[in-house]
Write a structure and sequence with these properties.
Its main location: membrane. InterPro entries: HAMP_dom, HATPase_C_sf, HATPase_dom, His_kinase_dom, HisK_dim/P_dom, HisK_dim/P_sf, sCache_3, Sensor-like_sf. It is an enzyme of class 2 (transferase). It catalyses: ATP + protein L-histidine = ADP + protein N-phospho-L-histidine. The chain has 18 helices and 18 strands. By secondary structure, the chain is of the alpha+beta class. Among the domains are: 268 residues, Beta-Lactamase (2-Layer Sandwich); 150 residues, Histidine kinase-like ATPase, C-terminal domain (Heat Shock Protein 90, 2-Layer Sandwich). The strands form five sheets. The protein has a five-stranded antiparallel beta sheet with strand order 8-7-11-10-9. The chain has a five-stranded mixed beta sheet with strand order 13-15-16-18-17, covered by helices on one side. A four-stranded antiparallel beta sheet has the order 1-6-5-2.
Length: 681
């Protein structure tokens, strides 16, 4: 806890005290500059050190490559020396039968693992490339991978020497990687007579890789503690190497281990050089690899050079730590100098700061004398700040006084404005209600007059037709049986015309009995509305489907309910662009307890549907999306249903259609009665 309090204490000091904040402000530029220098130094050091390391290992690989070529050239020179020796030439001229046996005995004399003399007739045993060069009289040296039988043909001891146990795999590699040289021998007629075949086995060979390492990594060329390594691979297998089995203890050789998959993909499969950081058996090395090709140009192995990475990193980290210690010392010295140099400024600034904090919490304080010269900038600043505080105090008093007066005026004006607003809202509401009723009354009056005229005009010719039909039946007597079906059809159509005209007349009547709320079976009113809608939509491609399942009666104004039903059905027809299926369904309105409350009428169309934005506004007066519409139909319908305690609900999905549901109570209830019921509950 003590350490925590100490830390919090110093954090609070740095946040609040002027001297520490000034120390931070003066030290930050120095710290940023030094950190930038550190970053640049580290970047340059890392970049150039690593690039230099890669260039060095790439150069080491080039030296190893040339060293291998020199060793192969030396191998070829030994065979040429053998073929040009006195004994070889003597046997070649005097006793060729003994020449082959003699050559096979010279293996150790010329520091080779095998020497074989092939007659010209064995030319077919070599590849096409070898044959072409031998026939041209050219010596050649190349790498080659041979199986155990081929090795035994060259020297019976080679298969045993070539066998490598694979570490961590419990298997043995029996193939051998050899460096092979071919020397053609021609007779006096310039015809190929013999082929001198010799070389060395690279499996388990330590002399060759150690000689190359000594040539590549001379003394004192690597960082302290690092080791240089060279490896010959047959495919991805180390067959000759001085990479230790333990890089720390530096013992053994990692023969029989494999290269990483990343290097294998790039060097063996893609045939490209690889230079970079690689994990070599048990440690990270700065490494470079190049492919080894046989006489046909196929990649059969790799040549590797590299040295341990950690000593290089250790040297680099040591330099960074030394640089960091030096920078910290510089920062400490600069902080002490800044602190002591700015000490004379701390006290007056802290006094000014304390006065500012006191004023912020509401205390009436002043800076006064700072014990500085009269013309000192901080002393002038203190006097100006005191003067500003005096003026601010006076202005605050004036503002408080004015704010009290303004608050009283605002309260008076707000109260008056609120009263006027309520009065205006009430007038607007009454005006809108009167306007809606006036427009609806005018529309219904005109519609009633029109439908009444149409009904009377239809009834007159209908009566004439009925009278003539009855006269025909009377005159024909029994002969009417021949046209009985036709006469029955005429009577049926006349009855249908009478029903239509009766509905029109009833729809057109206003006042009197028709405007009273009486008991009705909802299905009869729905059937009447369907008769009118079907008659009015005969020219449209509209099919009306009815499912009348309601059983209860309801109290309603028959005329107004018929108006609402026709309005909703015609809206559905228009929503379907005068074509499609219109469904009308009635059913009993039952609550959760199973009690019958009344009847429900649902009008469903399969038209364009209503968007979510318009769904909130469709019952607003004068809102419509049709050019020829007035926007009063749904508003008036909602008012009619609300007057008898019913409800209208709508469900719609854009592009699929809409369903309007009318909920009619068994016992009509006025709006005022409903409000009283709600208040009572």
């Amino acid at each position: 806890m003590n350490l925590k309090h100490l830390v919090l204490k110093w954090v609070r000091r740095f946040r609040t005290m002027v001297r520490y904040r000034l120390l931070v402000l003066t030290s930050v530029p120095i710290i940023i500059t030094l950190l930038a220098l550190i970053a640049l130094t580290m970047y340059w050091t890392v970049t150039y050190t690593w690039q230099s390391a890669l260039m060095n290992v790439r150069a080491d690989l080039a030296v190893a490559h040339h060293s291998m070529e020199l060793l192969q050239k030396e191998q070829r020179m030994r065979l040429m020396s053998l073929s040009s020796s006195y004994d070889f030439q003597t046997l070649l001229r005097t006793d060729e039968a003994k020449l082959s046996d003699w050559v096979s005995t010279q293996t150790s004399n010329y520091e080779l693992d095998f020497v074989v003399l092939h007659p010209a007739s064995a030319l077919g045993e070599f590849s096409k490339v070898n044959r072409r060069l031998l026939l041209k009289g050219k010596e050649q040296t190349f790498f080659q991978v041979l199986d155990g039988q081929a090795l035994e043909n060259l020297n019976p001891n080679l298969p045993a020497n070539a066998e490598i146990p694979l570490i961590n795999e419990s298997e043995f590699e029996s193939r051998g990687l050899i460096s092979r040289s071919l020397i053609p021998i021609f007779n006096e007629k310039n015809q190929l007579q013999w082929i001198v075949d010799g070389g060395i086995l690279l499996n388990n060979s330590t002399l060759l890789v150690d000689r190359i390492r000594d040539l590549v990594y001379a003394a004192d060329t690597l960082p302290a503690g690092s080791i240089g390594t060279v490896t010959l691979f047959m495919d991805d297998l180390r067959v000759s190497t001085n990479v230790p089995l333990d890089s720390e203890a530096r013992y053994g050789r990692a023969i029989g281990t494999r290269v990483s998959d990343e290097v294998k993909q790039q060097v063996l499969l893609a045939g490209e050089n690889w230079v970079g950081r690689a994990f070599v058996y048990d440690d990270w090395y700065v490494s470079s690899y190049e492919p080894l090709h046989d006489h046909d140009g196929n990649v059969i192995g790799m040549l590797y050079t590299g040295y341990l990475e950690w000593p290089l990193l250790k040297t680099f980290l040591t330099n960074i730590i030394e640089l960091g210690i030096g920078i910290v010392i510089v920062l400490l010295l600069s902080g002490v100098v800044v602190y002591r140099g700015a000490r004379d400024l701390f006290r007056p600034i802290e006094k000014i700061h304390n006065v500012v904090k006191a004023v912020q919490v509401g205390l009436d304080r002043r800076i006064g004398s700072l014990d500085l010269f009269k013309n000192h900038e901080l002393q002038i600043l203190g006097l100006q700040f005191d003067s500003m505080l005096d003026q601010l105090h006076q202005r605050n008093e004036d503002i408080k006084k004015a704010s009290l007066e303004l608050e009283d005026k605002v309260q008076i004006r707000t109260r008056s404005l609120h009263e006027k607003t309520e009065e205006l809202e009430q007038h607007i509401k009454l005006l809108n209600q009167a306007k809606i009723k006036l427009v609806a009354s005018e529309k219904l009056a005109a519609l009633g007059e029109l439908t009444a005229g149409i009904a009377h005009e239809i009834n007159n010719p209908t009566a004439v037709i009925l009278g003539n039909v009855e006269l025909l039946q009377l005159e024909l007597g029994d002969d009417t049986l021949r046209v009985k079906e036709e006469l029955d059809a005429i009577h049926e159509q006349i009855d249908r015309i009478r029903n239509i005209t009766r509905s029109l007349l009833q729809y057109s009547r206003q006042g009197g009995v028709q405007d009273e709320i009486t008991w009705h079976h909802v299905n009869l009113i729905v059937e009447e509305s369907l008769t009118l809608v079907r008659s009015g939509t005969k020219s449209y491609d509209v099919k009306v489907e009815a499912q009348l399942d309601a059983k209860c009666c309801i109290e309603a104004n028959r005329h107004q309910l018929l108006q609402v039903l026709i309005n909703l059905q015609m809206n559905g027809v228009h929503a379907m662009d005068d074509k499609g299926l219109l469904k009308v369904k009635t059913e009993d309105w039952i609550d959760q307890s199973g009690k019958v409350l009344g009847a429900v009428v649902r009008v469903t169309d399969h038209g364009c549907g209503i968007s979510k934005e318009n769904l909130k506004r469709i019952f607003n007066p004068f809102f419509t999306t049709r050019r020829s519409g007035t926007g009063l139909g749904l508003s008036v319908s909602q008012g009619i249903i609300s007057e008898i305690g019913g409800e209208i609900e709508v469900q719609s999905e854009l592009g699929k259609g809409s369903t309007f549901s009318i909920y009619l109570r068994e016992k009509a209830t006025s709006t005022n009665d409903l409000m009283l019921d709600v208040e009572a509950n």
